[in-house]
Structures are given as structure tokens and as C-alpha cells.
């Protein structure tokens, strides 16, 4: 008999936002035969929370499990409220740990964190980064299940000769530090006048307009595409040679995994869970947060060391195989069966 899942998260891809766990994992679970109900696609945060509460009540007799996408910022409290209601109705709930700043949340909201995570039947972390933090904090019921990709949808391209054509893919938000990408381009142009940058993603907090104003004032060769469908940006990626990830805070960024699958050499800040998926000098290059000089130096190395690029992109292709849905789905089946 198939299990019924209630999945709580920010299902806002249809509203122009970047797809999140609920947008990808939900359909994957449906493909395994689970009946999945979702909350919520409401744009307003208060209305979205109310919708989640209503769906928990509505499916309290049907749901075998409640999956809760759990973040470290304001949406942490959505998960906490949901957990309270699940506990009231004796529902099995599973927080899926997404927030790169959750280790700080464990310290800053100790009572709420204890209730949310101790009463869960299982915790799921996408990498050892959060799993280790939670285990060290006394939460032993953590299983690592990677963010899954359908790897056959990602055409790997070996780049014979790199050009200074940079690609950045993320929501425009202060925590992802998009302005640094423009500063890197500005510095790179001093040595590589043909350098260019493409930035893909929707605005989240006004950062997109600030970036556009900066690029205009500095006459930088940058393209802002806004939000693209996955198939669109995957096709676009074939025209670029280096992927940069400038974030201040992160857990397991899917865009970095996708860049690895596409054969793009990667330069990223060494923050949060990034070093757990991107090994410096092995599958990419890591630099200190906010280090513009470090980014420029790393990009210069990629542009001048062909054999190094070949090694790290091949290593990345081998590493990414463990994130394929065919490798991950057995873990979800075991937890939810």
C-alpha cells in the first residue's frame, strides 16, 4: 500500500522564484509511487503559513509522514510551528535541513530547535556539513541524503580552451553576495579585456537592482537574464567556461552540483557546506569569503593551466555521480516505507 506524504515548503517556482527542495524532491517521490500533497504555493508568507497549518489539519488522518523543508532564517519558524501541530496530532514529521546557517540557529534558538528536532522521527541532511553539526549538538537521528539530480538531464561538456566567460546562478540576495561577482569581473578586465559575466536568477531582496546599477555605472560587460527555466540555463551554460559561487552562507548549493555535472570548472567561497561537496584543488577551487583577489587569482589559474582544469572537471564528474536520483532514491524509499 503506497504511503501518503504531506510536503511543507516554499513551492514558489511557478511564481518566478528559484525552485527549492519541494519543487524537485516532491515529484521524484511521486515517481516512486508515493501520494504527495503540497503546501504551499502562496506568495504571502503569512498566508503560506496558514495554508501549511490548514493542510496539516486536513490530512492529519491520511498523512503517513510530513516532510518539512527547514531553513535557518525566518522560515525556520514555519518549520517550528508545523512541528508543534504535527506533535499535537501525533504525526511523523521529518525536517529536511536546508539552511546553511542552521548551526547558528541551534545556538540562537535553543528551545525551539530542541522541540523541532528532538520530536522528529528522522532528520535528513543533504551533506555531512549539517549532519556533523547536528550530531555534535546531540541529535543522533540524522541521515545524509544528497540533493538528487537527474544527471541524464545535464550534458557534460569538456572545455578544451577556456575563455574568461563567467557564469553565476543564484537568487539575487545579500547572503549570496552577487555584488562580489561584479567586483571580480571588474578586476578581471584589467588582465583579460575580453572577460564577461552572465548572472542568472530572480531578485529576492533588491540586490538585482543594486547589481544592475553598479554594472551600469562601471560599464561592465554583464548580462542579467532574470529567472530562467532549468532547461534554458542549462543550454546557456554551454556558452560559458567558468562557474563562480560568491555566497556568504551556504549548505549544499544545487547550482554548484549542477555546474559540476555540466563540466564547468568552479571557483567558490569556502563557506558552510561548500567544502564538503567541492574539494579544493581536486574538484574545484575554494577562496575565502569576500576575497575578490582570491577569485581573480583562481580564475587566472584556470585560464592558464589546461591540465589542471581537465583534472578537476573529470574529478567533479566522477564525484557528482553519487547525487544521481537513481543512487539516492533507495534511501528515501527506506525512510518512508
UniProtKB/TrEMBL annotation:
Keywords: Transferase
GO molecular function: glycosyltransferase activity
InterPro entries in alphabetical order: Glyco_trans_1, Glycosyltransferase_grp1
Cited SUPFAM superfamilies: UDP-Glycosyltransferase/glycogen phosphorylase
Transmembrane parts of this sequence: none
The UniProt record lists the keyword Transferase: yes
Keyword Transferase part of the UniProt annotation: yes
Chain ranges of the Glycosyl transferase family domain: 161-318
Pfam families, A to Z: Glycos_transf_1
PANTHER family, per the entry: SULFOQUINOVOSYL TRANSFERASE SQD2
Name this polypeptide is given: Glycosyltransferase involved in cell wall biosynthesis
